[in-house]
Amino acid sequence: MKLRNICITALLITLIGGTAFAQKKGKNTKNVVLSERQFWLQQMDRMVKPVLYNLAKDSLRIAMPKVTSIHIDNKEHRIKVQYVEVLGRVLSGIAPWLQLDGGSAEEVALRKQYREWAIQGLKNALDSNAKDFMNFDIGGQQLVDASYVALALVRAPWLWENLDKKNQELMMKSIITTRRFKPVFSNWLLFSAMNEAFLARFGYSWDPMRVDYALQQMEQWYTGDGMYTDGTSFAFDYYNSYVIHPYLATLANIIGAKTNSYKEMFEKIKKRNERYAIIQERLINADGTYPATGRSIIYRGAAFHHLADMAWRKALPKQLSPAQVRCALTAVIKKTLESPTTYKNGWLTIGLYGDQPNLGDFYNNQGSPYIASNIFLPLGLPESDPFWANPAEKWSAQKIWSGENFENDHSASLK
Prior knowledge:
The protein is mainly alpha-helical. The protein is 50% helix and 4% strand.
């Protein structure tokens, strides 16, 4: 199998049952060639189904393992907050797909099911009489987790519009309760800002100061070449992708529609988004691996949250074709999920390539790795979009390491 063909050959897989794109045939499994979109949908379904299925059945607390990192700082507390954590992380990744309409009959049916689970799950999370009722005010971590719920609702207004008025009010109040928590002086400022942006987006009173503080401080932390420090010092990790760039891009879209005060800043943010997307694409090796550096590496494909977000928003720079980004992300999905120990009893394990407990951080619980669902953002594009419809292309690493003549790369200040 040649690496340059991984975009296609990765999809010749053994189906093991349990999804709309994976069904058993008698006693033996059957090799079936899936389209890339079907492969993504299959992997998305396998990842997030246990969360939303059980939440819709009001059984998430019963079914979800109470697993934490071996380096955990406060096991009991981390387990208490894992439910809002997993809700926000799962929904933020599949929100664009939930928002989309159309597709094959199988995809339409799968989306219909997930929409039902998502709406019922949100209702259970907001129902104080439900087993899966979720408090948003247990501790500071929930400032983070609420922001991912807010991000999901912003990415999929369909979810918001299909909640009844009572549950809309309960959600609004739940997110507002996290104002009591002081954000860490780091990327956490963006979590406070996203919660306010959610309020602004759906017509509630919002606090411009929390947004302004985050935007102005991130501007101070911009260090050049499309990257920000995470707080007062630079760390060579993936937080520019996990949080910083996707959140800044979303804030620019929402707050830019409310005021022209940040027009110049948002233009800079757009250019920095583009530069960092170029860097991200070059980090993906010819076999779908990438440097396993920095904290939170167990977030797997969320290391490319930003690249996936740029593709979904059709904001890729001209240097990156949608097809090459699709193929690169397909390779990452395959590599990060192919280990036989990626899942245990259907639930994601803590690790990058399978179950690797030592890679966990002090704040990781069973909900943490589900931020990996954010690599699936381009499923929010219809199958007719060039991202899905254009023929497979090599990505940068494949071209370079197969000996092709290729354009060199240069840093950009963009301050």
